[in-house]
């Protein structure tokens, strides 16, 4: 399934997906209560129509999002995905700790001065 990137709601949903997902997580593209959106598999609303798994790859410096059929995973695959997601969450947390809010504001001010 190809996603309609001319639709602002689809682009916003994909933005949410790319900023919220962690390596190893399975995200689904679903329709629920008249809305179509991505959701992490464990948070899928009951009764939602599932179109498939949301996957992405980078092709020529562009992100290409596709919806593929839902795959059956073994217990080993599920455990490996869980470990990958936990490692990715720890990595993101370390980035926030290493780069404080004050440091981000200071860097933003420096960039603004350099561009002026």
Write up what this structure looks like:
- The chain has 116 residues and is of the alpha+beta class.
- The protein has 2 domains: 1-71, no CATH class; 72-116.
- It is built from 3 helices and 4 strands, in the order αββββαα.
- The chain has helices spanning 8-20, 75-98, 101-115; strands at residues 27-32, 35-40, 49-59, 62-68.
- The N and C termini lie far apart (45 Å).
- The mean pLDDT is 85.
* Oligomeric state of this protein: single chain
Largest sheet: 4 strands, antiparallel
**What number of domains?**
2
Low-confidence stretches: none
The N- and C-terminal alpha carbons lie at a distance of 45 Å
Outline? globular
Our estimate of the beta-strand percent is 25-35%
Brief digest:
The protein has helices at residues 8-20, 75-98, 101-115, and strands at residues 27-32, 35-40, 49-59, 62-68. With 116 residues, the chain is α+β, with helices and mostly antiparallel strands.
Task: Pick out its properties.
four-stranded antiparallel sheet, single chain, alpha+beta, 26% strand, 116 residues, 4 strands
Task: Give a topology summary.
Elements: H1 8-20, E1 27-32, E2 35-40, E3 49-59, E4 62-68, H2 75-98, H3 101-115
Antiparallel strand pairs: 1-2, 1-3, 3-4
């Amino acid at each position: 399934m190809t996603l309609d990137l001319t639709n602002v709601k689809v682009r916003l949903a994909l933005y949410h997906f790319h900023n919220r997902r962690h390596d190893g997580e399975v995200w689904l593209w679903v329709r629920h209560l008249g809305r179509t959106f991505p959701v992490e598999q464990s948070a899928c609303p009951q009764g939602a129509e599932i179109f498939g798994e949301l996957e992405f790859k980078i092709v020529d410096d562009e992100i290409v999002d596709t919806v593929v059929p839902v795959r059956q995973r073994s217990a080993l695959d599920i455990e490996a995905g869980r470990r990958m997601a936990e490692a990715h969450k720890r990595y993101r947390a370390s980035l926030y700790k290493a780069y404080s809010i004050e440091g981000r504001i200071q860097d933003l001010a420096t960039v603004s001065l350099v561009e002026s």
